[in-house]
Write a structure and sequence with these properties.
Blueprint (H helix, E strand, L loop, with lengths): L11 H10 L5 H6 L18 E2 L10 E6 L5 E9 L4 E10 L4 H9 L7 E3 L14 H7 L4 E3 L4 H13 L3 E4 L3 H9 L14 H11 L29
Parallel strand pairs: 1-7, 2-5, 4-7, 5-6
Antiparallel strand pairs: 2-3, 3-4
Amino acid sequence: MATWDDAPHLDEAAKKELWASIPPYQRDARAKGIPQLGSGAIYPVPESDLLVNSFQIPDYWPRGYGMDVGWNYTAAVWGAYDRESQTLFLYHEYKRSQAEPSVHTHGIKAPGAWVPGFIDPASRGRGQKDGTQLLEDYRSLGLKLQLADNGVESGLYATWNRMSAGKLKVFNHMAKWLEEFRLYRRDEKGQVVKQNDHLMDAMRYLESRINAFIVKPPQNNLPPPNQNYGTADAWMA
């Protein structure tokens, strides 16, 4: 993969002039050879503006995760919110296909069973394999789940607005998130292409409930790992 650095005829002045003439969503593709979708991209923001090196997240930053459920894929994205800079940092991802809720629960608890999750409201009535209600399944397995706001266009706008303002950053080890981000697009009719978008949906659910993030509790106050967090109506905020 060739980049501008492999073009000796381009001096720094020429690179700056070219960079200024390229729309933001095309810059990584043109300068670095990173695939982008051009004007069809839902988030026309260069990934170089989003990616940061991972770091130890302070315990006083509130956290949460967005979760998209289904039989083909279940996915989750974890975020930590820096109140001082009002920046959301995406720091962990989970994506697995064709597994039972008990299997997914094990992976989702790994970053911290205390972290609250925000799930697609449609999970209340969607069957994964045998028609059981996934929301209750996951709560009975100990996930601390609340319902997300599933307004698609409003959620996309809020997430894009955060990206554009430099208030959303992504740890650069999140390869599956990056794969989806690069292909997330609208079709010729302006509709979101519903393919390989589970982490993108999870990110939108996460964005919708930043105000419900919580700070890591003291170690001796952590709930038991199999704590049941109530009925479906208990967390409908």
